[in-house]
Design a protein that fits this description.
heterodimer; A: mainly alpha; MetI-like fold; 76% helix; B: alpha/beta; Rossmann fold; 24% strand
C-alpha cells in the first residue's frame, strides 16, 4: 500500500514536470509576447524589459532557470497582467475564492445528481425516470453562459433572493448563484452516471439473493446496490472537481468572482508566461490529487481491488 | 395430509415483443414436508420460472402470473403482496441459486450477508447473530469459520461460496428450500461435496427441498419424487424409484436413454432430436410430437393438449397415446 502511494506520487510529479515543460515551450512559441503593447514599444525599452525578465538568454537556459526556480518553490513575478507581483502571492489570494466556489458547486452537484440518479434507476422507464433524464440532458446541453444569466435573472433579479454578482466572503448568499451555475452541469452528468451504475447493479444476481432473503427494497438499495452503483460516479467526481475549479472562467466572468479563471484568461491573452505557468501547475496538481483520492475511494468501496493491490 | 406446498395449474407468461412466451403453462406439483422434490427438464422448460414465481422473484413486467395457485401451508403465495411475501422469503422459504460466483454481494463481507436474514426475521443482531452465522458456516463444512466469515466472497472458491449460500438459506431454519441448479456451475468433484452438504442438512433439519436440475443422475441421488417438465408443463411425475423403473412418457424415456451411463461402450449415444419448441408459438396438441422418436409420433394428440392422469398410484403422466406408446422397433419396455 505504501509503495503504491509513493509510486503514485512519483507519477504525479512526472505529470507535473511534463505539463510544465510543455506549457513553457508552447507559451514561448506564441506569435506574441508579454512585452508587446497596443502602442509600439521603443526598442531600448523592449531590450530593458527582456533583460529584466531574462528573455535575452537562450531559450534552453531560460527553461533551466525557470525549472530550478519552480522546484525551489519560486513561481516568479507576473510579467504583464499584474506587473511585478509575485505569482505565488496572486494565486494565494485568488485560489481560495475559486476553491470555495468549486467546493460549493460540487456539493450542490452531489446533493442533486446522485439522489436524482438513484431515484431514476429505481423508477426505471417510468415518467419520473424520463423526466429526470430529460432535465439532465438539458443540463448537459446548456452551456454555463446560458444557465448563469438565466439563474441571475430569475433567482437574483426577479425574485431577488440572491445577489446577482460580486463576491463577499462574509455573505454566503453571494456565492450561491455562481456555485449553482457551476454545479448544475456536474449534477446532470452525475445523475446519468449514477442511474446507469445503479441499473447495472440492480440487475445482478446478488440483488435477487437479497430479495429472496426478504430484505426490504430500501435496504437493498442502500446496503446492497449503492456501493457498486456509485463507482462510475466516483470515478467521474475527481476529474470533475478539478475541472469545476479550473473551468469556472465563464462563471467567474458572469458573476464577477475574483477567482483564478479570469486572471488565467488575461495571462493567456498577453502571453504572461509566469502567470500562465502558476495556474497550470496548480490545476495540474489538483487533478493529480483528485484522481489519487478517487482511487483511494474506489479501493475503499470495492473490496476486490484491495486484495488485487495487496498481491 | 395436506402437502407443505401445493402448486395447482400455475401459469406464468412473459409478454415480450415477440409475443406471449408461455414459460410455465399449467404446472401442478406437490411437495410434502421433509421431502426432496426434484424438477427436471431441459433449459427453458420452465423449471426456474416455476420456482421464482413462488417467491415473487419474476421480473414483472414482462412476466405475469396468469393463473393457478401455490398453496404453502394453506396460504396462496401468488396472492400475497410484496410486504407479506417478505415474511415468507428467507424465513419459511429460502432459495439458493445456480451461480454462486454472482449470487453473493462482492462488496459486502460474508458476515454481513450471513447475519442479514437473522436481523430481518428474528431481530437478532450483533454478537449473537454472528455466533449463529459462524455455526451455520461450520455446519456446511467451512473450516476456520470464525475468521473466514469476515472475508469477502472473492476470497472463497466456487464450491465454498455455494456452501455459504446454503448456510445463509438455512440459517433461519426454513420449512422449504428451493435449490435452483445449485451444482450446475461447479466442478464435478465439488458438485458431489455440495450435494452431500445439502442432503445432510436436509436430513438434520427436516427442511423440504425443491431441487431443480437437468441431471437425472443427481435427481436419483437426491430426490424422493420427480416431476419432469417439458415446454412449461409437467409431462410425468412419480416417486423417484418408480420413475427410473418405469418411465412412461416418450420424453422421460428419451432423457434416460440419453444418459451416457445407460449405454454400453462403443454404442452411439442416444440424443433426443430437435430443439424444445418456441414457447411463444407452441404447437396445438402434444408439444413433444415433433421430437417423439421413442413412441409413435403419428398417434400424438394434435387437437387438444394431453391431460395429466394418474396412470398408477402416485405416478402421473400426460395422457398422449403417441408419447405413451412403445416404439414398434424398440425392445425398451
Amino acid at each position: 500500500m505504501l509503495r503504491d502511494i509513493s509510486n503514485r506520487l512519483l507519477q504525479g510529479l512526472l505529470v507535473l514536470f511534463v505539463l510544465g515543460t510543455l506549457t513553457f515551450f508552447l507559451v514561448h512559441a506564441l506569435p506574441y509576447g508579454p512585452f508587446q503593447d497596443e502602442k509600439a514599444v521603443p526598442p531600448h525599452v523592449m531590450e530593458r524589459l527582456e533583460k529584466l525578465h531574462g528573455y535575452d538568454k537562450p531559450l534552453l537556459t531560460q527553461y533551466g532557470l525557470r525549472l530550478k526556480n519552480i522546484v525551489q518553490g519560486n513561481l516568479g513575478v507576473s510579467i504583464k497582467v499584474m506587473e511585478g507581483r509575485q505569482v505565488g502571492e496572486i494565486l494565494g489570494q485568488a485560489f481560495p475564492v475559486s476553491l470555495t466556489l468549486g467546493l460549493i458547486a460540487m456539493s450542490i452537484a452531489i446533493a442533486i445528481g446522485i439522489p436524482a440518479g438513484i431515484f431514476a434507476a429505481i423508477r426505471k422507464n417510468t415518467t419520473v425516470d424520463y423526466a429526470i433524464m430529460a432535465v439532465a440532458l438539458l443540463g448537459i446541453c446548456l452551456p454555463a453562459f446560458v444557465i448563469g444569466p438565466l439563474l441571475a435573472e430569475f433567482l437574483g433579479g426577479r425574485l431577488g433572493w440572491f445577489p446577482v454578482s460580486g463576491w463577499n466572503p462574509r455573505d454566503p448568499s453571494s456565492l450561491f448563484l455562481p456555485a449553482l451555475t457551476l454545479g448544475l452541469v456536474s449534477a446532470a452528468y452525475l445523475s446519468r452516471l449514477t442511474r446507469a451504475g445503479m441499473l447495472e447493479i440492480l440487475n445482478q444476481d446478488f440483488i435477487r439473493t437479497a430479495r429472496a432473503k426478504g430484505q426490504k427494497g430500501s435496504i437493498i438499495i442502500m446496503r446492497h446496490a449503492l456501493r457498486g452503483g456509485l463507482i462510475p460516479s466516483i470515478a467521474y467526481l475527481g476529474p470533475a472537481f478539478a475541472a469545476t475549479i479550473s473551468g469556472s472562467v465563464v462563471v467567474e466572468s458572469i458573476f464577477q468572482v475574483p477567482g483564478i479563471g479570469r486572471l488565467f484568461i488575461k495571462a493567456i491573452e498577453t502571453g504572461d508566461e509566469t502567470l500562465i505557468m502558476g495556474p497550470v501547475l496548480l490545476y495540474g496538481s489538483l487533478i493529480v490529487i483528485a484522481n489519487f483520492l478517487v482511487d483511494l475511494l474506489q479501493i475503499w468501496l470495492n473490496p476486490r481491488l484491495r486484495t488485487a493491490k495487496a498481491s | 395430509m395436506r402437502a407443505l406446498l401445493d402448486i395447482q395449474d400455475l401459469k406464468v407468461h412473459f409478454h415480450t415483443r415477440d409475443g406471449v412466451v408461455k414459460a410455465v403453462d399449467g404446472v401442478s406439483l406437490k411437495v410434502e414436508a421433509g421431502q426432496i422434490a426434484g424438477i427436471v427438464g431441459e433449459s427453458g422448460s420452465g423449471k426456474s420460472v416455476t420456482a421464482y414465481s413462488l417467491l415473487g422473484l419474476i421480473p414483472m413486467p414482462p412476466g405475469r402470473i396468469e393463473g393457478g395457485k401455490a398453496l404453502f401451508q394453506g396460504t396462496d403465495l401468488l396472492r400475497l403482496g410484496e410486504r407479506e411475501l417478505n415474511t415468507y422469503r428467507g424465513r419459511k422459504i429460502s432459495m439458493i441459486f445456480q451461480d454462486p460466483m454472482t449470487s453473493l454481494n462482492p462488496y459486502l463481507r460474508v458476515s454481513t450477508q450471513l447475519v442479514e436474514p437473522l436481523a430481518i426475521h428474528e431481530k437478532l443482531r450483533g454478537k449473537p447473530a454472528l455466533h449463529r452465522a459462524i455455526e451455520a458456516l461450520e455446519q456446511v463444512g467451512i473450516e476456520n469459520a470464525a475468521t473466514r466469515i469476515h472475508g469477502y466472497p472473492h476470497e472463497f472458491s466456487g464450491g465454498m461460496r455455494q456452501r455459504v449460500m446454503i448456510a445463509m438459506a438455512l440459517i433461519t431454519k426454513p420449512d422449504l428450500l428451493i435449490a435452483d441448479e445449485p451444482t450446475t456451475a461447479l466442478d464435478v468433484t465439488v458438485q458431489k461435496q455440495v450435494l452431500d452438504v445439502i442432503r445432510e442438512l436436509q436430513r438434520e433439519t427436516g427442511t423440504a427441498v425443491i431441487f431443480i436440475t437437468h441431471d437425472l443422475a443427481v435427481v436419483h441421488e437426491m430426490c424422493d419424487t420427480v416431476s419432469v417438465l417439458y415446454a412449461g408443463r409437467v409431462v410425468e411425475s412419480a416417486p423417484a424409484a418408480e420413475l427410473i423403473r418405469r418411465p412412461l412418457h416418450a420424453y422421460t424415456r428419451g432423457l434416460y436413454r440419453s444418459n451416457p451411463s445407460a449405454h454400453a461402450k462403443d454404442e452411439d449415444l442416444y440424443s433426443i432430436p430437435g430443439l424444445p419448441p418456441d414457447l411463444a408459438r407452441l404447437p396445438g396438441g402434444c408439444t413433444f410430437r415433433p421430437r417423439n422418436t421413442l413412441g409413435v409420433a403419428s398417434l400424438c394428440l394434435t387437437e387438444r393438449q394431453p391431460e395429466l392422469i394418474e396412470h398408477s398410484p402416485g405416478h402421473f403422466v400426460q395422457n398422449c397415446p403417441g408419447c405413451l406408446a412403445a416404439h414398434p422397433s424398440s425392445a425398451h419396455a
